[in-house]
């Protein structure tokens, strides 16, 4: 089909260089374009529950929670599971340390004279090959110091495998005669087990309560060293006072000291020995229990009271 020129219609919009007139926009559409973008719909929120507690109620609640936590912890601890866990971890660690070379391989002792080695080993409580880190130093020292012959002890752990034990033994200062036998005692009055060979020349203490007063006795005797060197025995009388024997246990001069002012009486005896040499006059007993009176006894005389007789030994 052929088109005639009259069938072709060119409008103003189709002509080159001619702009199309803007379309009319409806008021509704204009309003929609000029309006700000719509906000997204907010999510629905549930209302919060607000608890208005008083300070007392809050404190009570905190206390209740603390009780619940403590009760739970106590129940867990009482079950023994934490202790077993700690013990298993410690055992594994000590075993590993021993395998790494930290084990007891050498034990040395210094200061031992009379204490039996088997007693020390038993009190130490460890054997060769044990983990050295497992040795309880404090407990071992307490056990060793509890031995009758040990006064003090110190233990050193010398890594990787040596333990050194240093002890101070109790030193005998007297022989205690009890139940027809002799026992060594130190200044503290503690009995020292073992034989007395080598200590036969120590002073003899006799009587109930004598060992407990040994330190007091030797402190008194030390105030007059020359006279103290001649003391052979000390007899505790009724656990109140002392009778001192000089030069010989059986035949020596016996000095009866008072319960009170004992030191003054001891000084008085020392002065009499220096100035009058009583022991050389065949005197067997001197009673110093009365401060202003001196009573003597000799082999030849039954009793002499220097307040009325015996001018050679009368006190000035």
UniProtKB/TrEMBL annotation:
Residues 11-45 are annotated as: Disordered. Pfam families: FtsQ_DivIB_C, POTRA_1. Gene3D superfamilies: Cell division protein FtsQ/DivIB (3.40.50.11690), membrane protein fhac (3.10.20.310). One of its GO terms (biological process) is cell septum assembly. Residues 102-170 form the POTRA domain. Residues 18-28 have a biased composition (Basic residues). One of its GO terms (cellular component) is cell division site. The chain crosses the membrane at residues 59-77. It is a single-pass type II membrane protein. It is found in: Cell inner membrane; Membrane. Belongs to the FtsQ/DivIB family. FtsQ subfamily. Essential cell division protein. This is Cell division protein FtsQ.
